[in-house]
Write a structure and sequence with these properties.
The complex is a heterodimer of chains A (633) and B (602). Chain A has 633 residues and is an alpha+beta fold. Helices cover 39% and strands 17% of the residues of chain A. Chain A has a six-stranded mixed sheet with strand order 15-21-20-16-17-18, with helices on both faces. In chain B, a hairpin with an 8-residue loop joins strand 30 and strand 31. The chains are: A alpha+beta (633), B alpha+beta (602). Strand 1 of chain A pairs antiparallel with strand 31 of chain B, so a sheet runs across the interface.
Chain lengths: 633, 602
């Protein structure tokens, strides 16, 4: 089964799929499936049991209902329902006519305050209302049920209670706050940290008079505009078709609506109609050409038209069933609008509207029309182009979620699809290899990463990140000679480029030569003293090198103070830990602990267990007043 | 004869071909929930006809095929129950009952004399009643009918259990319901039938449960026409069924027959009146309706820039940037469209989140890490189906405990309209592909952070316990098993609410209740050879909705059956709501899968 937007279909063949297919086919052909079920409503009898009151309450709608959203639409003090249905009406409003409403309820809108640790929408906030010795509790939910979101207003029925004793809100971060000033029948806004209920200013909409639902009668008449023209097979028996667009019209002499339709068509000058009689399908002559012509002439139609055979009917029907879910008999009359290239563009089931058909004929020559827009009954917007769906974007999405295996798999399948023929140019191929290299490098699969980076460079020699990461991967894999050669090549073009100098230092560090690396980072900083990656790496070496001759706590702390000022550094656990290491090396364990615990706070939220474990070990070390040096864990 | 229109005589999927039934033990429960009513055979409309050669071929329908003898009996007994139903509706009881009763039919009263009152609206047969007084069957029905001053609106009598009895007789449990405006009666009848010639006749009927509900007439009124009927887009689009549009819009536009489209309510323009956003199937534009001061709807979809033509299922309003107005999340085929509310009824796409391994269904937002902004969870029900979007059915394996669905996603709000997928980082990746339909957040254990419940189709639900308040780590562990809320069933919806006012959030889960499934899953032929546990899980699949009472110690007890809220039919959305302002949370359930009306097609 496809897990991807590449567009493969699930594999057919299993018993399950056969059965699902069989079921689906029966539904396509008009069968109901658990249909005509009435919605349910259960009345709560004091928490002890419920009574099925669906019908008595008038909520036992026979619609195929789906979503339910609650709100007191008219602010009259009771809960109304908006529902979505599969059957008509597909959006339905059930108003609560509770006569006592307005006296025996109260409603609250909770508004959080980030100062109090809550988002404004206050999702998850819990309100406890005490009245007549009973606590009633409701929570703010943003989305529940099925595909539904009810109002954020919390509506409390109060039964016999005519007085509210206490209103306490437990905000999502856990802090409780009591609100004063609420009375039965009110609607209040409760703003966090204010402690005061404020009566809502909104008066609510006017209560509307109930009018009976007037659904239109179902109709078989349908116009289907195809988003992609449908070709008809060449070997069909069709009468001679005039040049230009034509309207194939299926008719029979015994079909009254056909005759009426023909008459309407006949009255339109120049309508390119080609009438096709269906009475001689079996090959025997039920109606003669002469008889047919006479009927057509009396309808004002000059064209002689022709006779359909079963093959023609099958093919025309197939055009519909291939595109339209509902499988129904092809009705009479039916018409098919063909463009000048003899491709079907529109289908009219039942009697066609002359005005619509004339307009559709004109539409055939319109060129600047989006075929999808033309094929839908109402205007709107498509999400086409809004989502980035090229392989790189899909792979990034997977990687963002930590699904590196899926990202690799997806990119490899994309490569397989492209094959040697990269229609998007070598650039795309190179980009895919580049990402594959990144994934493998992060996974510590250096040789595979090296291979992908090489292919990326082969595809696009200008792809600088591929060169840099190839260099680093080579160093990480211990290929010192080639890594250093790559560095030399990079530097040859621009010797003072701090990026390349930094890569050189990284290579030395990866190869275990920390002295060279430290010198390298210093030369980067000599050119740009704010070069953060170099500051971070140098701080780390000065603080944690296994070589006592390289370590320098005082210098490390000085660097660390720069590092702490980098944008985002105070919320970055890796940088915070490097700063902590620097303090520890300088003997300032109080600061070291402080920074390490800061780092832990951030790492705990979403960090992985391994990193958290390492950091916790480091904290123990600092508590024992010991600095951390590479290789000691 | 050319003017032939062939149609299904019956839609009963329980009785598909032998091959389907035998090969598909696993799927049969779902099949068996199929309707048991016949559609009226349509006659060709005057002057219109089918083109010969395009009629549909139908499978033979024989309930006995596949070895379900009791299903053959059920079908025959149902026709007798239907006659009892019509007798009550028509009021012509004696006449309609000819041929239903066996000689010497034994009956109890069907309306008890001694009723136990529950408040002023509900009266029941006391639970400790041993013997309901005898009565002639005709007289028992006459008394039942006399509860109604006018003709009852509907009646239904469904066989929810059948077992063979001595001498080839059959015992059935029948769920019976009859109602008129403001009143309804819900009963269970235990009936014994004996076969005479080809008919089953009623040998005895005993009232097992009785519930009479009276509420002021017209408690809810359909105000759709008043609120929305004057808007042209509403009339043109929503007054037509999905089937209507399925006949006019190509499948490749994304439309399918299921109608899994939801809605979201929020005050988008700060006028104190709540507005509605509603999803539509592919090819029809989503609509945003503003709430006018006069209570009616005004279409502002195009102006607001939210009239997406793509198939969308779920959407959610959430103030993602804490500026005081609700922004909009829309679940499209490719992923989530994030739109910022600029005020003045203008929304702008500010971010998209691709969902490469799931198709978005319900969305639910909460601040999971207490950094004061809203994060959100998206149910990814099914793996992306590729180009053809018209598959109505997912492909669960195994059917009753599937884990091959689409991938759900939890997005962390990083500010500036950046969102990061933290599903895996927070431990939610485990059991993350269970055909999740619905999600809802609640601090059910009152430990100060928000936990998530997921209703999953075809199997086990999940309860993700958030560890944040304990450890400072946003880590979720599925504790559904320990908490007792696995609810192995086709989960469709979930909502939290405190039904017993004890201060702890309880949980209501929408599933499927199937009379046929309940009949069949207990028969020896069903899954012959399977172990008791598996058979039990299948029976559970047809068992209906669950009400999980929070016992306050991190555990729940399913009291749905005991409290009478499990029979929600083929449920979709479900929701706690105090409908009558008595201070106790009632429950509403949307249901019904596919009802195809005669839409005028031939």
């Amino acid at each position: 089964m496809s897990q991807s937007p590449l567009g493969e279909e699930p594999e057919p063949g299993s018993t399950y799929l056969d059965a699902f297919g069989e079921l689906a086919q029966r539904i396509r052909t008009g069968a109901s499936f658990s249909g005509r079920e009435r919605n349910c409503a259960f009345l709560n009898l004091g928490g002890e049991s419920f009574a099925d009151a669906s019908a008595a309450l008038g909520l036992d709608l026979a619609q195929d209902s789906r979503g339910i959203a609650l709100c007191d639409w008219d602010h009259d003090g009771d809960i109304d329902l908006w529902m979505t249905n599969r059957t008509a009406p597909r959006l339905q409003f059930m108003r609560n006519e509770n006569a006592a409403a307005g006296k025996n309820s109260v409603a609250f809108l909770l508004v959080g305050d980030p100062q109090g640790g809550s988002p404004l929408d206050a999702a998850g906030a819990r309100l406890v209302l005490s009245a007549s010795g009973t606590d009633r509790v409701q929570t703010v939910h943003l989305g529940d049920g099925f595909l539904s979101q009810s109002s954020r207003w919390l509506h409390f029925g109060l039964g016999e209670s005519d007085k509210i004793d206490r209103v306490v809100v437990h905000w999502p971060a856990g802090n409780a706050e009591e609100f004063e000033g609420t009375e039965t029948g009110g609607r209040y806004v409760l703003k966090q940290l204010t402690g005061k209920a404020v009566a809502s200013q909104s008066k609510g909409s006017r209560v509307i008079e109930i009018r009976e639902l007037e659904l239109p009668k179902p109709t078989a008449l349908a116009r289907i505009w195809l988003s992609e023209p449908a070709d008809l097979p060449n070997n069909l028996t069709l009468p001679h078709l005039p040049n230009g667009p034509v309207l194939l019209n299926l008719w029979a002499s015994w079909c009254a609506p056909c005759l009426a339709e023909l008459k309407a068509f006949g009255a339109v000058d120049g309508l390119p109609i080609v009438p096709i009689n269906i009475e001689n399908l079996e090959g025997n002559e039920v109606i003669s050409a002469k008889e047919a012509k006479a009927i057509l002439n009396s309808a004002g139609i000059e064209q002689a038209g022709g006779f359909a055979d079963t093959k023609l009917i099958e093919e025309l029907n197939k055009v519909i069933t291939d595109r339209i879910y509902r499988h129904r008999n092809l009705p009479l009359p039916a018409s098919f609008l063909l463009d000048k290239n003899r491709r079907i563009r529109a289908i009219y089931k039942g009697k066609g509207e002359v005005a619509t058909i004339v307009a559709d004929l004109e539409k055939l020559s319109e060129v600047n029309i989006n075929p999808k827009d033309a094929a839908v009954p109402f205007p709107g917007r498509w999400s086409d182009g809004i989502f980035k769906k090229h392989p790189i974007a899909v792979a990034s999405t997977y990687r963002e979620g930590g699904y590196d295996d899926d990202a690799r798999d997806y990119l490899q399948r994309s490569l397989a699809k492209i094959g040697g023929e990269d229609t998007g140019g070598n650039l795309r191929l190179a980009d895919i290899h580049m990402r594959l290299g990144d994934i493998d490098r992060d996974a510590g699969k250096h040789e595979s990463a090296i291979n992908h980076y090489r292919q990326a460079i082969a595809g696009n020699p200008q792809l600088m990140p591929a060169r840099i990461f190839l260099t680093l991967s080579l160093a990480e894999a211990g290929h010192s000679k080639e890594a250093l050669q790559m560095v030399a090549n990079l530097k040859a073009a621009s010797p003072d480029n701090p990026n390349f100098l930094n890569v050189e230092a990284d290579v030395h560090r990866a190869l275990g030569d920390e002295a060279q690396a430290a010198a390298g980072y210093r030369s980067v900083l000599a050119i740009n003293h704010r070069y953060i990656p170099a500051i971070e790496a140098l701080t780390s070496i000065l603080a944690t090198s296994a070589d006592a001759g390289i370590r320098d706590g005082v210098a490390a702390v000085k660097m660390a103070e720069h590092l702490g000022g980098a944008p985002g550094a105070r919320a970055n656990p890796r940088i915070l830990l490097t700063i902590a290491d620097a303090y520890a090396e300088a003997g300032n364990f109080k600061m070291a602990l402080h920074e390490a615990e800061n780092a832990l706070k951030y790492l705990l939220l979403y960090g992985d267990d391994q990193k958290i474990g390492r950091l916790q070990k480091r904290i123990i070390l600092f508590k024992e007043k010991k600095p951390y040096h590479v290789g000691q864990d | 004869m050319l003017l032939v229109s062939v149609r299904a005589e019956c839609d009963n999927f329980a009785i598909m071909t032998r091959r389907a039934l035998q090969a598909l033990l696993l799927f049969s429960l779902a099949l068996l929930t199929a309707c048991e009513k016949k559609e009226p055979a349509t006659t060709p409309r005057e002057g219109e006809a089918a083109v010969p050669g395009t009629e549909l071929e139908l499978l033979p329908d024989d309930p006995g095929e596949g070895g379900w003898e009791t299903e053959t009996w059920s079908a025959a007994i149902q026709t007798q129950l239907n006659r009892i139903k019509s007798a009550l509706l028509d009021g012509n009881i004696e006449l309609a009952l000819a041929g239903v009763e066996a000689e010497g039919c034994q009956s109890t009263r069907l309306v008890p004399k001694n009723k136990q009152q529950f408040g002023d609206r509900v009266a029941r047969l006391p639970a400790d009643t041993k013997d309901v007084p005898a009565e002639s069957f005709t007289q028992a029905l006459v008394e039942l009918r006399e509860l109604f001053s006018q003709s009852p609106r509907h009646a239904s009598a469904k066989i929810v259990g059948i077992s063979p009895a001595v001498n080839g007789k059959a015992d059935t449990r029948v769920a019976f319901q009859i109602d008129a405006a403001g009143i309804q009666v819900n009963s269970q009848w235990n009936c014994r039938w004996q076969k005479e010639d080809s008919n089953w006749k009623l040998e005895s009927i005993r009232l097992a449960t009785y519930e009479e509900v009276r509420v002021p007439a017209g408690a809810f009124a359909d105000a759709t026409e008043s609120a929305a009927g004057r808007d042209a887009t509403f009339r043109e689009q929503f007054y037509r069924s999905q089937d209507h549009w399925m006949a006019r819009i190509e499948m490749r536009m994304g439309i399918d027959i299921s109608g899994w489209q939801g809605l979201a309510i929020a005050d988008i323009d700060g006028d104190g009146l709540e507005d509605i956003y509603v999803s539509q199937p592919g090819g029809l534009p989503n609509r945003l309706y503003r709430h006018r001061p006069d209570g009616t709807l005004e279409d502002v979809s195009a102006k607001a820039g939210v009239d997406w033509l793509d198939t969308t299922h779920g959407s959610l309003f959430a103030d993602l940037d804490n500026d005081g107005d609700p922004d909009l999340l829309v679940g499209a085929a490719d992923g989530i469209i994030v739109m910022e509310n600029h005020g003045d009824l203008q929304f702008e796409v500010v971010a998209t989140k691709l969902l490469p391994a799931g198709l978005a269904y319900s969305i639910a937002a909460a601040d999971i890490d207490q950094d004061c902004d809203l994060d959100f969870f998206v149910c990814g029900y099914t793996p992306r189906a590729g180009v053809s979007r018209h598959h109505v059915f997912a492909h669960p394996v195994p059917f009753h405990d599937a884990n091959n669905g689409g991938r759900n996603a939890l997005f962390r709000n990083d500010g500036d309209w950046r969102f990061t997928d933290v599903t895996r980082a927070t431990g939610m990746e485990e059991k993350n592909t269970r055909f999740s339909y619905a999600a809802t957040w609640e601090d059910y254990d009152l430990d100060g952070d928000l936990d998530l419940y997921l209703a999953n189709d075809f199997g086990r639900n999940s309860l993700y316990l958030n560890d944040f308040s304990q450890s400072g780590r946003v880590r979720f562990t599925d504790v559904a098993e320990e908490a007792g809320v696995v609810d192995i069933a086709p989960g469709m919806s979930a909502c939290w609410g405190d039904y017993n006012n004890d201060g702890h959030a309880d949980l209501y889960v929408g599933n499927m209740f199937s009379s046929a499934g309940n009949r069949i899953a207990v028969q020896p032929e069903f899954l012959a050879g399977a172990d008791a546990e598996t058979r039990g899980e299948f029976l559970r699949h047809a068992g209906g909705n669950s009400l999980f009472k929070n016992t306050g110690d991190g555990k729940f007890a399913d009291v749905g059956k005991q409290l009478g809220v499990s029979g929600g039919r083929w449920a979709w959305s479900s929701k706690f709501a105090d409908l009558d302002n008595d201070g106790w949370q009632d429950i509403v359930v949307a249901n019904g899968f596919i009802t195809q009306e005669d839409t005028g097609d031939l």
